[in-house]
Inverse folding.
């Protein structure tokens, strides 16, 4: 009986592990450099490419935030705009990504959830507001720091993201 209970407890503890991922691709309008070191909220997991990091409550109302996806070493990373989250297609996917200095981040619209934009909290970058599937906006991160951003029309719904640059 004790062996059975021990195996069950171990299985439940391991069931909490999860993993994250990222992608690459995209193209279109762009920008370069930036450098605003702000701090942020905790959450997420330390396994499978995601890690816990502080963003000062930025992700408190973001339904799809599941830690920071580590994409360091990639030259280009894609983030979906209009990903599933926050009771509809009102999310960035993944919500938070860690990249290396010099990485090009491409935001690609899914065409879901209406019109969206990508606007940095500190003003380092801002896209136009569009709703067409396949539209892209890019920014190359030439400075280290944490860059919080949101979709201006849907920020109150929790459509927020962050790029952490090492």
């Amino acid at each position: 009986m004790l062996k059975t209970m021990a195996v069950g407890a171990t299985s439940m503890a391991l069931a909490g592990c999860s993993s994250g991922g990222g992608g690459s691709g995209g193209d279109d309008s762009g920008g370069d450099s930036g450098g605003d070191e702000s701090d942020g909220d905790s959450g997420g997991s330390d396994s499978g490419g995601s890690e816990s990091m502080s963003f000062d409550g930025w992700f408190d109302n973001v339904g799809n935030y599941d830690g920071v996806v580590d994409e360091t070493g990639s030259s280009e990373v894609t983030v979906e705009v209009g990903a599933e989250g926050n009771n509809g297609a009102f999310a960035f996917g993944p919500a938070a990504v860690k990249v290396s200095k010099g990485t090009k981040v491409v935001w690609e619209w899914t065409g879901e959830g209406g019109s969206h934009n990508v606007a940095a909290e500190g003003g380092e970058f801002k896209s136009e507001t569009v709703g067409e599937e396949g539209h892209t906006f890019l920014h190359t991160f030439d400075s280290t720091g944490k860059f919080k951003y949101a979709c201006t029309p849907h920020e109150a719904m929790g459509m927020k993201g962050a790029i952490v640059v090492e």
Q: What stands out?
A: The first helix runs from residue 2 to 15.
